[in-house]
Amino acid sequence: MKLQWAGILLGASVGGVNGMAKYMHEAMRGERISGYGKSDNPSWLPEFKDESRPYQGHRIPRTEWTLTCSSSAPGFPCKNAIDGKSTTAWRSDSSDKGHTFIVDLGAWYQVGAVVVLPPTDTDTEGLITQHKIWVSEDHEKWTGPVAYGMWPSVNRQRMSAFEPSSTRYLRITTDADKENPWVGIAELNIYGTLYTIPRDPALGAWGPTLDFPIVPVSGAQEGSGMLALWSSWADDQFHSTPGGKTVMTRWDPLTGDVSKRTVSETHHDMFCPGISYDGTGMMVVTGGNDASETSLYDSVNDEWIRATEMKLRRGYQASTTLSDGRVFVIGGSWAGASNVDKDAEVYDPATRNWTMLPEAKVSAMLTEDMEGPWRADNHGWLFGWKDLSVFQAGPSKQMNWYSARDNGSVKAAGYRMQDEDSMSGNAIMFDAVKGKILTLGGSPDYDKSWATDAAHVITIGEPGTPPKVEPAGRGGAMLYDRVFHTTVVLPDGKVAIFGGQKFGVAFNEENVHFIPEIYDPETNTFNKLQQNNVVRVYHTVSILLPDARVLNAGGGLCGNCTANHYDGQIFTPPYLLTASGQRRPRPEILSGLPDRTLVGSTLRFKTSGPISTASLIRLGTNTHTVNTDQRRIPLDVTATTFFGNTWKTTLPKDSGILIPGYWMLFVMDRDGVPSIAKIMMIGVDNRKTIQAAQDPLGMIEEENDVEAPIFPLLEGKVAIITGAAQGMGKATASVFLRAGAKVVIADVKAEHGAQVAEEFSALGEVCFLKTDISKSEDVQSLIKQTVSVFGRLDGAINNAAMSPDQNLLIDF
Ligand SMILES: *[C@@H]1O[C@H](CO)[C@@H](O)[C@H](O)[C@H]1NC(C)=O
Ligand SMILES: *[C@@H]1O[C@H](CO)[C@@H](O)[C@H](O)[C@H]1NC(C)=O
Ligand SMILES: *[C@@H]1O[C@H](CO)[C@@H](O)[C@H](O)[C@H]1NC(C)=O
Ligand SMILES: [Cu+2]
Prior knowledge:
By secondary structure, this protein is mainly β. β36 (517-520) and β37 (525-528) form a beta hairpin. The chain starts with a helix and ends in a 15-residue tail after the last strand. It holds the Pfam family adh_short.
């Protein structure tokens, strides 16, 4: 403890030293360690009975505070918010401009949480739901929001916990809300820590906190770019479900908007489900508390759709998407009886029906859990692979190859060296081209079990062949023993690992890891990332965002227990930060990438500056440590350019590697700084799946009239198109480019021609040559220049209305 205290003083910022010293002195005297001084001895104090208290947080004494509120209703002054009595409150007026509450703490503290008790006598009137919290050392420069989002709209104490920073001023703002024209605070308390966490941008950075109206236990990236997160039938518990509904929140990373709704359309309590994006981009959520239901989520239209029930009842099963876009599900004895073998079945998006695979036996993948069969088939580490196969990498010590052909099959695939059963460990395909899977930690039993630090790289090849297993990191180990941790593959191929415990106990918050780590496949090492101050253990999720940051959220969902976390935190990986913690400029994808494409296609696109690599990461879905959707495909890019920064890349042809569904394409510059991703639906050249993809809701009855992909028939050919600055000639140039040809746009209109060439530069190699085709010497020079630029000439389309010297152009 002594050492840590020394660190505090060293770590305190210059402005904070005096305040900290004073606070430290009081804290060390013991009696004021929670701030209960003579003059701040409230009759009401926050209690943390139904959520996790601010980690190592101490209530800051309120005697020196000065309050400023944007307005006060008569008889409800600001100061009522800190008078120690829960029966008196500050109330704002009913302004439609929103409200602000500013606290001057009178000194500097490492502030890390705000706890608000709403007016206790008004039911839901006056509740603050949407809010933003800002902090400042000097009232001039405000940092934040350090936390924002939506608190649950029930009349009870609510909290925002954020990374502690030196703060003297704290500002809470709420937007105008027609439903709730005024807001109130019966009691406001602020918590500080007795330590600072040194911040090193080279290790990444934490913040802001997102406050959610639910405890998010499951979450998914959406094709829309938003995030969907959900709990169970209630926002805080999964027990005693009445069934039939789920509480969901959605976050829009662009606007910061957090919304809430109850999903009852699919009659499905989606707690503890299997989740996979099928080959049409529809999220398929199976089983859980309502163990036979299937819910489909069309994120682009924000619509939940009920599908056929599974053949078997399941909870804690795992699912993965096959090379043809169907979804394979296995295990799940946690719900719907554990005396039946939960063998595999397959969901087909084209018919929305399930089919059993009676020979794809679950018995091959059971662990020897001390709690018996209801735990033994939970949370499989599944990877859809070539030719309708599935590689099962764990958590059982036995690995297996499954196949979804005919009646299904299973074949043993060896062990992860000496690894034990690794329940609630993580497995992630960080390089699908090479078939590389990283496995991390877990524990032999689901509950009350010691975690391991075991880490392996498994390389899979052709289905059914033995995989190669190698130790990952020094001695085949992570830096820490972890179970209930979460893992995200980053665009650059590194793998970030968050939270978890040393000794895994559900809904327990001891033996917790606050230091994330990152695996670098190039050096085969694990390294520390920036520490945070919020516990993330059982029931947490981590999801890569399209802007290459990570959301690390949730924990708990245990009713009136102290492990509930109604929030998430954004982690910014080191690749986005300069040495001083500023944002590094990112490359930008400007144009050329389609919303939909097929496996094997060649993409041409334009960026704002030079790039060196690109990668695809499949949209992730995460619950209970399992994210079978997430995988990464490194892409080679080549420059194709006259105008600079136009690139070409070819996608893998095998849909067992490039599993159909939604993918994010990131480009990275020379320093490894990733762009914001372009989200694309990548399909297989299979009419049934393409049709379902165009029409996820099954509304189109006619033949689909989608623009047919243009096949690269003219790959490598060089063509001149005259009169291509506009109209037919321009359209022809576009078709030629999309068919793979290199095109010379010849036109007498210099300005138009150059513009068209620039516009088309994302489609392929194109240049403009000003040519008056009525002049023989111009035409001679056009041909000469074309050959000198492209090395050859294969053909010409004389679209312009004239020919030189009134003669027809011959074919070259
Ligand atoms: C799907 O299942 C439903 C109900 O079992 C059945 O009526 C329907 O014919 C099936 N459709 C297909 C295409 O198999
Ligand atoms: C699948 O199993 C059924 C029932 O046992 C059997 O009749 C059928 O021949 C099997 N199909 C294949 C392709 O093995
Ligand atoms: C939690 O406690 C409150 C107050 O005692 C009670 O109203 C609520 O129903 C409890 N919730 C659960 C999930 O037990
Ligand atoms: Cu659970």
